Amino acid sequence: MKFLEILRMALGSLGVNKLRSMLTMLGITIGVFSVIGVMTAVTALRSSIESGLSFLGTNMFQFAKFPATGGGNDNTRRRFELRRDITLEQGIRYQRLMEEISSVVCLKVFDRTGPYAAYNNRKTRPGLTFTGSNEHFVTANQYTIATGRNLTAADVELARPLVIIGQDLVTKLFPSENPLGKQIKVKERPYTVVGTFAAKGNSFGGGSDSIAMIPITRFLSDFGSERVTVNIATQAHSQTVYNETIDKGITAMRIVRGLGPEQENDFELYSNDSLISIFAKVADMVAVGSFVISGIALLAAGVGIMNIMLVSVTERTKEIGIRKSIGARKQNILLQFLIESVAISLLGGVAGIILGVLGGNGLAIMLNASVVFPWNWAAIGLIVCSAIGIGFGFYPAWKAAGLDPIEALRFE
User: Fold this and answer.
1) In which residue ranges of the chain is pLDDT below 70?
2) CA dihedral for 284, 285, 290, 292, sign (positive or negative)
3) Phi and psi at residue 85, in whole multiples of 5°?
4) Is 174:202 a contact under the CB 8 Å cutoff?
5) Across-strand partners of 62?
6) What is the rounded radius of gyration, in angstroms, for the C-alpha atoms of the chain?
7) Cα→Cα distances 285→173, 274, 412, Å
8) 153, 83, 140: which is closest to 108 by C-alpha?
C-alpha cells in the first residue's frame, strides 16, 4: 500500500471518533502548553533584561543596606533592617576616599511612599519615583538630559530646591508649555524645574519616566534623614580595572562604616551582572518546575493514547481482518496504527505550542517585553510529541498487526 493511502486511512479513522480523539489530545496539549508557555515568556523577558534589570550604568557597582532582592523572607529581612543606615556623611567620606580611583560616585536616596507631583491644577498619579541624588545620577542610572541642564556639585552643596523630571511628568503637568523654570510641588514642597530626562521607556511593568530628582542634600533637609539609607553607586574607569575598583570600593566602604578586620560587611554589593544572575536562577527554577509538571501531564497523556489505541484495535478487529484478507501486510497495519497514534500526539502538541506561544507572549506584552517565537522549544516539543506517539502507540499497533486474519474475520 502507498504511504499516502495509509496516512489518509489513519487520519480518517481519527475523524470517526472526534470527541474521543480531542479528549486524548487534551493531555498532550496541557503538557506542551506548560513548557512552551513558560519558555516563551522567559525567552521574551530575556530580551528586556538589559533594560529592565540593568538599571546601573556601564562598569557600575552599588553599595546598599539591603540586597537587590529586598531581603527575602521576614526573618532574613529583619536581619538587614537591624543594620545601621548608610548616612550621607558616610557617602561623602567614601566619595573622597575614591576620588583618585573613580570619577563617578553617585549618592542617592528614595522616597518609598510613592508620592505625586502637582503643578497648578494638574497632578500626576501616585507612585512617582522621587529621589535625591547628585550630579552623577544621570551616568549611574543610564539617563540622559533632554532639555535644560543636569544638577551641579554647587546645587548639591547648597541644597538648592531644584528638580529634574521625567517625560511622564512633562506630558501630564506641562502638555502645552515649556516646563523649564516652572515650579512644581512634590509632597507639598516646591521645586523649580531646571531639566528634563529623555524618555527611557518602561520595563517589567514599571515606568522609568515617572521620576523626579532633587539634590540629595535638599531631600534630606526637607524630609529628614531618620530611617533613610543612602545607596552608593561607583563607576570603574574600564572593564579592565572593574574588579580592582570593586576591591578598593569595599575597602573604602569598610573604612567609612568603621568596621574592624574581623567584622563582616554590614552592607550589600551588587551590580548589573549579579542582578541578571539572580533573574537567570529564578528563570531556571521556573523552567524546571514547568518541565516536571509537563512531564507528568505528558506521561498521563501517553498512557491515555495507549489506552485509546487498544480500544480502537478491539473495535476495528474485523476491519483489520478484512484488510489482511485482501492483501494488507503486517507492516501496513502497524504503520497505520502508528500514524494514528503519532497524529493524535502531534495535533495535541501543535495546539499546545500555539496556546503556549500566545500565553507566554501575552505575559511578555503585559511586562513590556518583546514578542518572540521560541523555534527551538517548538521543535523540541514536536519531537517529544512524536516520540510519545510512537512509544505509547507501538504496542497497540503491534497487537493490531499481529492479529490472525481468520480469527479477526470471525470477531463480532
Assistant:
1) 1-16, 45-57, 68-76, 201-207, 272-280, 315, 367-369, 404-412
2) positive
3) -70, 150
4) no
5) 233, 270
6) 32
7) 43, 17, 54
8) 140
